[in-house]
């Protein structure tokens, strides 16, 4: 992804798209932000779901009920974030937002 | 109590209903009413085949044994789904852009359409999935047995094996019917997907109902359940960090790599926008599926007698409380989970087997090109149907051989680890352009081997495959090679141990080999297509058009896609190209599109090979280009050789034609010469005859007349003799047979001799000759007599033809290198330029005959003499009068 074909003019919309502009329209900016968030949600999920290991390592034992509530709560948070994100990301792309930003990391 | 007959009837009714749904959906799809079938809801629900009977029943059992750990296998897929923007979107986009038909096709296509990789992944998938199918059969059979356990009225002892057999047969039938109805280029099975979506709802409703019954029916709501939970044996649960993390990772990996998941997630995906909803809705589905698992386990442990199988709590709990209807619903939920998994897995595997094993073999066995006889479509469908039966049959066989039981129950995770071996190669292929085919194969084989050794083989039959000594002391007695403690890592859980080592070594080999190998051109092309899928909406330019005739392509496509669809495709393309007839030009773009369409039916490797056969294997790869360049260089060399030869030939031809021209000229000259000579001979002969007749016949002649006539005759014979002498001389000179008397001579002497000889007999027209005695003093080695002959000729010509009233001939001498130039220039009118080329020709007399007194051979003889002496004589134009230059070498 980091290897854009060289030697093409940036004007070629198929290669760079308007993303090569320095400043984006407000809508585009929002969209790009949502894409960044879309990439980060699974990272947050990993941390949330792996947290019980760290929590448990500090104590004798973890009450099952508490652990269950925590896990499901974390799950719900992730789902809620996901709902919000997918609303942002599935909005029809305006002409100059252009979904060609391929979600680079 | 539910009677066995009712159970069977419900089962049949349910299956019939599923058939109906599938049939209806297929009909709707055929009519083009796809809106609902392609909706995000159906897509999300179809993903639920992740929740198999193993998770439906087994999750509760798992929860009863290991507490909250059961949830890990739902957490992994949830993470993958919420990260759809990053990974799944890419996967689906690639799947659609490249018309990927299976995970094996994805890997094969990514690494240069390599069929080797396709076969590897297919084998891995079959080995990994077969036990899983067996597990589903076991679940269904077990659930049947639960109902038959209470032997009441009308119940007969259910033969478990025969139940499994009939379930397997039923599933085969359904899958063959709806999975291979048509060979859709998009490889979508609307009927199957819709039926699965329906089953997903049944599963969820069943589990939620049992959960609700447990929480609000058996316990006093959530708070009460939580209290009971902490009081139950499950409360002893301790989180095992290795397993917790390992299983979350494993389930995420398996979610991506399981052939059936890939089938519904990528292959059946109609629109990547569906992911936006699935991204949150599927995690929600999974959460709901697991929400009541712990409560059911807790209540089961509490209420059911000790020793009850916790795997069946979902069924036995409602049954024990007399809630038969709920139990039946729960049974249907489990039944749904099992059937949907088997159906999709069988479709996915059959696609892989037929596309990567059967079709390549079939194609390679047939004569190449479009001349193959028979309907290829039928071959593909048959291959798929047989593959489905083989896959389900293998599952059944595995179930029979393993004998069911606990050994089978653990196979779920083992199977996950097996199919997850594709993950490094898949992710590497999606994100890393420099990953190579060899590396992918090496990584897959490494991972597969380690999985077999550390997990799969130890799991089956204990002492059967791997002996006890191997298990305890390692292979060849090396303790570092103990299957469940590689390199001394014995403290790990066997599954985590296997995940770690297989994934680590798989990735290590994959990356290391990639670093040391170089991808083939097609791999690099595909690599760019995959890694930069969002930048390249256009596909690779795969084919040159040269060899592919549109008719051949149409014939072949009809065999695979079916006549109607193929013709539609071709017509559309022809219209797009602006052509009036139905056949489009086989442009690279069209070939590529066609290849993808075909790839949807027979897999990318086979489609590539088939188009390749028609397009004369003309895939434009850098390799080919290099070969072409090589060839071109050879051709150029050859052609330059040809050119040289042809130039040589041309040269020879030119020489020939020159020679020919010369010969013709010579022949003409010879004719002219003959006619001239006969004329020249004839004229004096006529005079001689006439006067000799007069002398003979006339008696009364005066002596004066007699003398006059005799002297005429004498003159004429002299003239004849001179002519013949000249001719002889010329002939000798021309043939180069002349004997030259080369000796030291002085030019001055030669000129003296010539001047006196030339002027001696003449007295009528005096000509002054201007000479430079100092210049003339040049010593030569030459034939003095011949040279003077030339000079005499030139001087007498000047005397004869110079028209000036006071004729003067100037003889100028100059030395030029090894030559002496002797110029004879008179002050007459000279020779007109158009006649200049002729003066050295034989019998060339420019003026009237009378004055010449010669036969016109003088200059011709001069030229021949000079040629023989190694010099030349030439006319010098524009010198004020007639000017000749004689060039004599100082030494011959």
Automatic annotation (TrEMBL), chain A:
Membrane-spanning parts: 37-55, 67-85
Keyword list, A-Z: Membrane, Transmembrane, Transmembrane helix
Superkingdom classification of source: Bacteria
Annotated protein name in UniProt: Uncharacterized protein
Species of origin: Halocynthiibacter styelae
UniProt lineage: Bacteria, Pseudomonadati, Pseudomonadota, Alphaproteobacteria, Rhodobacterales
Automatic annotation (TrEMBL), chain B:
Pfam families, per the entry: HATPase_c (PF02518), HisKA (PF00512)
Record's catalysed reaction(s): ATP + protein L-histidine = ADP + protein N-phospho-L-histidine
Subcellular location: Membrane
PROSITE patterns listed in its UniProt record: HIS_KIN, NA_SOLUT_SYMP_3
InterPro entries in alphabetical order: HATPase_C_sf (IPR036890), HATPase_dom (IPR003594), His_kinase_dom (IPR005467), HisK_dim/P_dom (IPR003661), HisK_dim/P_sf (IPR036097), Na/Glc_symporter_sf (IPR038377), Na/solute_symporter (IPR001734), Sensor_HK_Regulatory (IPR050736)
SMART domains: HATPase_c, HisKA
GO cellular component: membrane
Protein name per its UniProtKB record: histidine kinase
Source species of the chain: Halocynthiibacter styelae
Lineage of origin: Bacteria, Pseudomonadati, Pseudomonadota, Alphaproteobacteria, Rhodobacterales
